[in-house]
Amino acid sequence: MSNLDCQSASEIVIFGALGDLSRRKLLPALYQLEVCGLINENSRIVGAARPEHTLEEFKTIVLENLNTFVKEQLNDEVVTRFMNRLVYQELDFKDSSSFTKLADTLATGNDTRIYYFSTAPSIFGDICKGLHHADLIQDQDRVVMEKPIGHSLESSIDINNQVSDYFKENQTYRIDHYLGKETVLNLLVLRFANSLFSNNWDRDSIDHVQITVAESVGIEGRWGFYDGAGQMRDMVQNHMLQVLSLLAMEPPADLSAESVRIEKLKVVKALKPINKDNIKEKAVRGQYSDGFLEGSAVPGYLNEEDANENSNTETFVAIKAEIDNWRWTGVPFYLRTGKRMPKKHSEIVVHFKKPPHNIFKDSYSDLPANKLTIRLQPDEGVELQMMNKIPGIASQMRIQENKLDLSFSDTYQDQRVVDAYERLMLEILNGNQSLFVSRDEVEAAWIWADSIIDAWKTTGESPKPYAAGSWGPVSSISLIARDDRQWVE
Ligand SMILES: NC(=O)C1=CN([C@@H]2O[C@H](COP(=O)(O)OP(=O)(O)OC[C@H]3O[C@@H](n4cnc5c(N)ncnc54)[C@H](OP(=O)(O)O)[C@@H]3O)[C@@H](O)[C@H]2O)C=CC1
Ligand SMILES: O=C1O[C@H](COP(=O)(O)O)[C@@H](O)[C@H](O)[C@H]1O
Questions:
Q1: What is the pTM of this model?
Q2: What residues does NADP(+) bind to (predicted)?
Q3: Residue 197: which residues within 8 A CB-CB, separation 6 or more?
Q4: Is 215 annotated as a binding residue?
Q5: Would the pLDDT of 249 be above 90?
Q6: Where do the H-state alpha helices sit in 95-181?
Q7: Per-residue pLDDT tens digits for 264-275
Q8: Whose CA is nearest to atom 8 of ligand 2?
Q9: Which residues contact 297 (CB under 8 A, 6 or more apart)?
Q10: Residues 365-389: pLDDT tens digits?
Q11: What are the φ/ψ torsions at residue 376 (nearest 5 degrees)?
Q12: Which of 102, 186, 318, 397 could disulfide-pair with 336, CB 3.0 to 4.6 Å?
């Protein structure tokens, strides 16, 4: 079945259509789906926003954005098709009575509506009330929620309740854009389409796993938002736990949303709690200070624009996560993520156990373990480090460490790199929830993350400084060195 066979025509309503996310990601993603012919020909895109604009003015803004944010040259024919789908709706999301205008607009369109909440979560409840007030919620409609879903378990329950009063769970799509990344999706294929890995994916074969999500960017003008969150809430509670779940979950029965989400949830629930009693040995938080990136001086977190110089917010986190279940007992998952690290570089390194006995002692005294490196971004690919004989007639067997390297850009040269939002938008249009996060997952992740954040608060643990352009505070090296291991650089 092609994607379009399962996709009914819909009204795609973007609340916050003139905001940053919509302009940079959502509209370009929809344009790319248009290029691929993946949007039902009768679907419309309704931009809802506060300012008064004519449709022509809205189209002009959208075209400017496409010119800016779509990497490839725009195709005139596709642009015309895309523009013909656009509708503009001036709306104050906090004024329920104004939603009757939206009802009039939607009355002339398709039966199924996709409501994309591209606004701050504090407004989700107001939008739901407005939609309800104008009788705009039907069983076949879908709602898309952007992150962050709260800043704690309590606030996430509150946001989820505000939406679930009006939409059922099977109508709700919670975005974690990491689930739309090609390389994150490829984890499923790597693990469950290759028996070499699926048969060796447990405590018997694996020594430990490292997950690094390093960013070279700093706060990029969003100090106010970021300072209330920090790297634990911004990256670990969501993206890193999603990656960890896909990496560690049991094989799902199939790829349905229900099967995949149940298995991911079990992983998060099995995470050993980190609290005030063990925080010092299990987690490290850091904050970047002045430093250098690619040869240029960059300010520290407390010297960024709009900064409050007393902030204790972390911009770096390293954690020794442990999954208390049959498969993973005794296998640490070391997580590390930070802003202003030397480069944008995200990867998973699976360290297998060493061979039990070395028969090559004469040429190699200490056989290294196999390492599987999954490069998430950039330079996406998969690399397996293994031992190999050096060809030659020498009487003594000479061996060396070598690698099998599958670089996606070399192997799939003709393929454009698909942005995560394109993939996720397509899944929303097709009504497939597999790549979206269930309420249970969000809440289980908050329980684990909250305990760490509370422990930092209780112990008064301040973030350790690290120079911008470095790999994090020295204590993150100690975190892993205590177990006689080291971060892969
Ligand atoms: N930007 C990004 O890259 C990412 C954003 N997100 C999330 O996506 C969501 C949107 O973010 P972002 O686009 O950056 O935010 P913006 O503030 O840029 O956009 C939000 C839009 O909502 C509009 N809005 C707010 N209140 C009302 C109202 N009462 N009535 C009508 N319109 C209103 C704003 O309009 P006005 O300007 O008139 O107030 C603004 O255009 C947030 O939850 C964010 O956390 C998640 C990941 C990445
Ligand atoms: O959600 C977020 O993700 C980005 C990192 O996303 P990536 O796709 O560039 O890896 C992060 O910079 C931002 O702070 C966070 O809110």
A1: 0.96
A2: 50, 92-93, 147
A3: 190, 191, 372
A4: yes
A5: yes
A6: 99-107, 124-133, 153-164
A7: 999 999 999 999
A8: 178
A9: 290, 291
A10: 999 999 999 999 898 999 999 999 9
A11: -75, -45
A12: 318
